[in-house]
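Consider today's protein:

***
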Amino acid sequence: MKVHFEKVDTTDEEHAIIYAMAETEDIRYAINLLEGNGGNIPVTKDGNTYLCSPQNIYYIESVDKKTFLYTKGDCYECKLRLYELEEMLSYYFIRCSKAMIVNLRKVKSVKSEMGGRMNASLLNGESIIISRSYVKDVKGRLGL
């Protein structure tokens, strides 16, 4: 992909034009970043509020109507619901079960399990199960 940058006067409004054959997931991700929608997610831990960068998230899980974000070594609570996070996160985040979203950039390996499920080993050493109804989508995104 070619990228062209042109400096404008301070009085001109900044804008970006994207020429593409189709509006793919990658293009939508770039648009979200340019529009400022790919920002940090407010999370809490021990009464403190933090801003969590999506690139640090390994997976997101919903348990008892609460949403938790897992990073390399920490777990944070988030007020957003899974479907809201799924909409705001990039192409590399995908639903892997009814209650979980995984960051595909943090997947080390996958292995087929009995019953059509898959086991995904993450870069932080944790393993998660990909439900059989989501296996096809995950394989497609991973190029398998």
